[in-house]
DNA sequence: CTTTTACTTTAGACACGTCTAATCCGGGGC
DNA sequence: GCCCCGGATTAGACGTGTCTAAAGTAAAAG
């Protein structure tokens, strides 16, 4: 019987592990979950006791296989819900996150099954994030690179945008940066800001943290030649 | 900011008030919510402090108007969810209760609105229970009488069956006692057991607590004359 | 009018998840 | 090789919701 809170810790640690190599530090977790470091310390002790994380004092934690499974289960719930809300309840993809963040802890396995069925077993959510499949095997995230790691001139297709802040998402949507869109990278500033040209001719600059959280797939350059974009 | 638990108490007290005149005693609540009486005492103190119930020590509690409003909000969530799960996620009406009991505390107002819209503002849930409308005015429950208060020989149409125990509901469904069905009352035993004849010719005996929780509407007797039922 | 009894409340404990304040490592700079 | 500083942990507290055991009360039975 894991509490909602424990599930949130495991999900958070999983996401942090996707972003950076384990071990994940106390303060990273505290930051991500918006609690104080002592709170994290006591929680990770508990998770360690239960065998959900491997903890080394003063170093940080790493999810065990069991911890990963729980995290994937929660993530599956979250992303299925996001997809369902978008497809069947007419939510916009920029506003589903909070609802899913709560409900993910409260739906039954039966509910999960029926939602997956109603959606015909989707593999990605509306933000482009992969939905772990029912057997909870770790999804493989190859081929997707970070927007921030490409050279100017490269043309890429957006595959995933992070689903954290509703504000940000609305902004990205307005700028037409959504999964499936093809953009050309115009400039990468020394402080990490990336400027891209969208197919409608607009340009958009994105600070490092954002550019880092957007995953893309490289596209053959001539694929967008029909929609050429001006240089400046 | 009411906790889930407080919402459960308020909903429970509301339902108990529908069944019996207030004040509602500590032990009735304890029984209904499956907690011990001291737990109830401390909780109702808190609810009293917040103005959600009127409490008289050693007597019991009664919901204030504000308490009623909260209870209706929760009940609206519950019943909309039951209806939604049945209509759009292919649940059977005998299995929706538990899912709704959890989710009712966790859906946003936005979610409520969209579900109501998807269902075209339904007025009753799959068990026949009235869904409070969005303005949370107390639903009026006239015309519905208890199955247990009718004379043998009377013909009635089932309008509501309680939604408490999945087991019971499945049993009732198998016996064809569902909202909309017309039955004739064959016998009322001195210990409260009611025997009814269903239109397919079967008969069904129901113990007092069940017969008490089933609400019915009286029907003109000749309405079922085409499907006459044997005496014994 | 007193006693009994059923129910309610008080007292005190515990698990959970959180906090602040204080202490404690451990690795980088000197 | 020592010190310092930033981050981590311990200590101790609190609010919530629950429990068991003990004490109290009200109303029915005698």
Automatic annotation (TrEMBL), chains A, B:
Region (Disordered): 120-162
Sequence similarity: Belongs to the DtxR/MntR family.
Keyword Transcription: yes
Biased composition, class Basic and acidic residues, residue ranges: 141-152
One Pfam match: Fe_dep_repress
Entry's localization field: Cytoplasm
Major site of localization recorded for this protein: cytoplasm
UniProt keyword annotations, A-Z: DNA-binding, Iron, Transcription, Transcription regulation
Coiled coil residues, start to end: none
Signal peptide stretch: none
GO MF entries: DNA binding; DNA-binding transcription factor activity; protein dimerization activity; transition metal ion binding
Top-level taxonomy: Archaea, Methanobacteriati, Methanobacteriota, Stenosarchaea group, Halobacteria
Assembly description: Homodimer.
SUPFAM superfamilies, alphabetized: C-terminal domain of transcriptional repressors, Iron-dependent repressor protein, dimerization domain, Winged helix' DNA-binding domain
Protein's name according to its UniProt entry: Iron (Metal) dependent repressor, DtxR family
GO cellular component: cytoplasm
Start and end residues of each HTH dtxR-type domain: 2-64
Biological source species: Haloarchaeobius iranensis
């Amino acid at each position: 019987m894991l509490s909602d809170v424990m599930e949130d810790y495991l999900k958070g640690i999983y996401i942090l592990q996707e972003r950076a190599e384990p071990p994940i530090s106390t303060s990273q977790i505290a930051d991500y979950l918006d609690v104080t470091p002592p709170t994290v310390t006591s929680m990770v002790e508990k998770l360690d006791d239960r065998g959900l994380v491997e903890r080394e004092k003063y170093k940080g934690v790493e999810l065990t296989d069991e911890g990963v499974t729980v995290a994937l289960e929660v993530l599956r719930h979250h992303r299925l819900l996001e997809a369902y809300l978008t497809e069947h309840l007419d939510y916009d993809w920029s506003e589903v996150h909070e609802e899913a963040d709560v409900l993910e802890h409260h739906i039954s396995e039966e509910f999960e099954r029926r939602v997956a069925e109603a959606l015909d077993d989707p593999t990605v959510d509306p933000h482009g994030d992969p939905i772990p499949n029912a057997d909870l095997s770790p999804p493989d995230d190859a081929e997707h690179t970070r927007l921030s790691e490409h050279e100017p001139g490269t043309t890429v297709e957006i595959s995933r945008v992070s689903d954290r802040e509703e504000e940000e998402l609305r902004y990205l949507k307005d700028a037409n940066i959504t999964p499936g869109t093809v953009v050309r990278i115009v400039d990468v500033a020394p402080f990490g800001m990336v400027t891209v040209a969208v197919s409608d001719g607009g340009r958009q600059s994105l600070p490092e943290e954002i550019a880092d959280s957007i995953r893309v797939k490289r596209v053959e350059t001539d694929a967008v030649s029909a929609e050429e974009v001006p240089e400046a």
